[in-house]
Amino acid sequence: MRTMAFTLFVIPLLVSLLAETGATKPGVPQALDGSKGDSDEESVQQKTADVASKKNKKMQAAPSSVASGQTRTPLVGERKKAGAVAKASTRWVRAMATGGRAYQGGRYTEAERLFSAALNEAEEFGEGDPRLATSLNNLAMVYSRQGKYEDAETLYRRAVAIFEATLGARHVEVAASLNNLGALYWTQGRYDKAELAYQRALAIFENALGAEHPRVATGLNNLAIVHAAQGKYAEAELGYKRALTILQRALGPEHPEVAIGLNNLAELYRDQGKHIQAEPLLKRALAIFEQALGPAHPKVAPVLNNLALIYSRQGRYIQAEPLLKRALAIFEQALGPAHPDVVNGLNNLGLLYQRQGRYSDAERALRQAVRIAETALGPGHGSVATSLSHLAGLYQEQGNYRDAEVLYQRALAICEKTPSAEHADVAMVLRQYATLLRKENRETEAEAMEARAKKVLAK
Questions:
Q1: Which of 65, 222, 229, 268 has the most CB atoms in a 10 Å sphere around its CB?
Q2: Cα radius of gyration (the chain)
Q3: How far apart are CA 102 and CA 98, in angstroms?
C-alpha cells in the first residue's frame, strides 16, 4: 500500500518495460517493446503474430536436396508435426491477444486463464523460443496485479534466465525482463532488490543502445523512482533530470514520454513538500497529454490526481475536487465502472471529502472503493487493505472506534498474508491502529502495535 488515511493516493507514472505484451500496468503507461504509436490491442496482436510468423517459417518442413536434381518429399509424420506446430502457434496468438484485452479491461481472472493457456502452448515450442519468455512475462504481470507476488517473481526470473541463455546476458530483452522484475519488487516495497534489477537493466541499455537512447531514459526514470522511495532525493532528482534531457532531445519537448518524466519529477518535489516547484511541472505534463492524446485519455487521469493532491495539501479543496472528479470520470469511461483503477479515484475523492468534513460523501465513496476492489481483485488483495484502512480512518475520525477497529484488523490480516507485508505502509496502519487504541485507553495494546510497526520498518 502506498498511502494511508488522511492522505490522497498518489498514482505514480512509473515507466515499465512490459516486454511484447502491449498491455500496460495502470500507472505504468509505456511498454517499450520496439513499437511506437500502436494501440495496446494492436500492439498485442501485431507483436504476437510477428513472433509466431517468424518462428513458423523456421519450423516448417521444407524440401531438402538429397541428390543432384532430386528432392525429398516430407514424410507423413513430418507433415503432421508441422501442422500441429502451426495450430499451436495460432492458438498461442489468439490466447495472447485475447488475454491482453482482458488485462486491459481489468478482468484479471480471465487474463490469467488465457495467458496460462498461451504459456502451455509456448512450453511446447521449447526453451529457446522467444514466445515462451514473452508468455512468462505476461502471466507474471497478471499475477502481480492479483497480488500473487511469489508466483510472479518465479515467472519473471525464469523469463530472464531464458533470455540470458538464448540471447546473451547483455541483450536488451534481458534488460526488459529485469525491468519487469524490478517493477514487481518496487510494488512490494523491496526497494533494494528493485534498485539492483533496475541498475543492471540500465547498464545493459546504455551498453547496447548508447547513453542518449530513450530506453536509457526509461531506465533512469525507474531507478529514480526507487531512489525516491528510499529517500535518496538528490540521486532521484539527478536521474529524473537526465531522463528528461534525453527524452526532450530524442523525442521533442511535447512528447507524452516527456510528460511522464515531468510528472515523476513533480512527484519527487511534492514528496519533499516543494509544491511551488511541483505544480508547474504537473500543469505542463497535463497540457502535453491533453494535446497529444486528448483530454479523456487514461494517462491524463493520474496527472489530474497528482495536481489535486498538491491543492489538497495546500487546503485548496475547491480546486482539488473538480480535478479528482474528472480523473474518476476518465477512469470509469475508459476502463469501466468496475475496473480496479477506479478504486484509486474513489479513494482519492473520499479522502478529500473527509478533509472537508463531508463524512457522508466520504463514506459513500470509500465503501464503493472497497466493494470494487474486493470484486475485481479478490478479498485478499493489497488494494482491498488500502481501501479498508482509508475507511477505518474515516470512522476513527468520527469516533466510531468499534467499526474502525474491525476494518484495521481486516486490513492487517490481508497485509500480513502477502509478501508485501514488510512494506512501510503496513507500519502506518499499525500506528493508526495504535492511535485508535490509545483513544480507548488501551495503552498496552497500543504499545504492542507500535512495537510491531518498528519491527516491520527494521526489516
A1: 222
A2: 24
A3: 6
- List pLDDT tens digits, range 299-329: 999 999 999 999 999 999 999 999 999 999 9
pTM: 0.78
The CA-atom distances, in angstroms, between 82 and each of 65, 117, 124 are 19, 20, 13
Q: Is the pLDDT of residue 458 over 50?
A: yes
Query: Rounded to an integer, what distance in angstroms lies between the CA atom of residue 81 and that of residue 257?
Result: 45
CB contact at 8 A, 272 and 229: no
Who contacts 223 (Cβ-Cβ below 8 Å, separation ≥6)? 195, 198, 199, 202, 239
Residue type present at position 380: G
Cell of 62: 521444407
Amino acid in position 189? G
Domains in the chain, please, with CATH?
339-459 (1.25.40.10)
- Which of 276, 267, 212 is closest to 244 using CA atoms? 212
pLDDT above 90: residue 84: no
Residue 389, burial from CB neighbour count under 10 angstroms (0-12, 13-18, 19+): buried
Q: Residue 143, CB half-sphere, CA atoms under 13 Å: how many?
A: 22
Q: How many helices (DSSP H) and strands (DSSP E) are in the chain?
A: 19, 2
Write down the pLDDT at residue 77.
57
Continuous H helices in 105-167: 108-123, 130-146, 149-167
Q: Which residues of 185-223 are buried (b: 16+ CB within 10 A; e: fewer)?
A: bbbbbbbebbbebbbbbbebbbeeeeeebbbbbbbbbbb
Q: What span, in angstroms and rounded, lies between the C-alpha atoms of 267 and 137? A: 28
Containing 7, the helix (H) or strand (E) segment is none
